[in-house]
Amino acid sequence: MMTKTSIFGAALLSILATGASAAEPSILVQSTTSTQNSGFYDYILPIYKSETGVTVNVVAVGTGQAIKNAQNCDADVLLVHARAAEEKFVDGGFGVARSDLMYNDFVIVGPTADPAGIDGGKDAVAAFETIADKKTLFASRGDDSGTNKAELRLWEKAGIDTEAASGDWYRATGSGMGATLNASVGMGAYTISDRATWISFGNKGDYKITVEGDPVLFNQYGIILVNPEKCPSVKTDLGQQFIDWLTSPHGQQLINDFKLDGKQLFFANANK
User: Fold this and answer.
1) Is the pLDDT of residue 43 over 90?
2) Are residues 248 and 155 in the same domain?
3) Which tens digit of pLDDT belongs to each residue from 113-171?
4) CA nearest 54: which of 247, 249, 266, 239?
């Protein structure tokens, strides 16, 4: 005959076993704010879970911070948009391999009044030169994100020292893309944004795209499995499964199918 203690113990073991078996497989992805702000994950991750049973948890920060987090082994997969930094991550042994995933482009946005007179231009560097020459307000993310890195490359090409202009016409928000767009609208400043976040941004007011279509505004996203040799906690099989799914013909078609107000936000280009 079982005692009350043994009955309680057996019941507890049963509960623990049931909880363990019911635990869902999951992975952690360090990613950019642009993919989060655009609604991309809200769209694609439920599909992935329904097809695989795997939950994907996302930490959305600037690319620079996402890479640091992954280097600290706080990730299974890295999905960001700063190719040089991604390749450095892999070359340093922190990533197994890098794959192109999808792309869109950056756009320069500003008030309809267009105080710098750059509206309709297709030369991003020339637009930046004009903004600096006229000392028109410009809001930078200033957060080492992929967008911030792209912006700084343009200032460098334009030969502009933004540190010298900091606090004057050049304002760094230290914030994500959505917050920086809000700050830009609030202060009447130009800024640069990835197109997906701009399309999904709900507080445009009298703002519009002023410069687009320059090849230097191309915005490539890459995906990387964190190296289990550096980070033994990495869920290698589940992480690689997610990458393989996104880069498969099925995953790539789902990326192309993601639209907002009839506009395609990302263009799949894995294995091209």
Assistant:
1) yes
2) no
3) 999 999 999 999 999 999 999 999 999 999 999 999 999 999 999 999 999 999 999 99
4) 239
Question: Residue 203 is encoded by which pair of tokens?
Answer: 């507080």
117 is a domain residue:
yes
Q: What's the whole-number average pLDDT of the chain?
A: 92
Domain membership of residue 206 (yes or no) is: yes
Assigned token pair, 169: 């016409």
**Are both 54 and 155 inside the same structural domain?**
no
Task: List the domain range (segments joined by +) for residue 249.
Answer: 24-103+219-268
Query: How far is residue 66's CA from residue 63's CA, in Å, rounded to a whole number?
Result: 5
CATH number at residue 153: 3.40.190.10
pLDDT tens-digit map of 195-239: 999 999 999 999 999 999 999 999 999 999 999 999 999 999 999
Distance CA 203, CA 23 (A): 40
Read out DSSP for 63-112?
HHHHHHHHHTT--SEEEES-HHHHHHHHHTTSEEEEEEEEEEEEEEEEET
CA 188 from chain centre, in angstroms, equals 25
Instruction: Kindly state whether residues 207 and 115 are assigned to the same domain.
Output: yes
**Number of compact structural domains in the chain:** 2
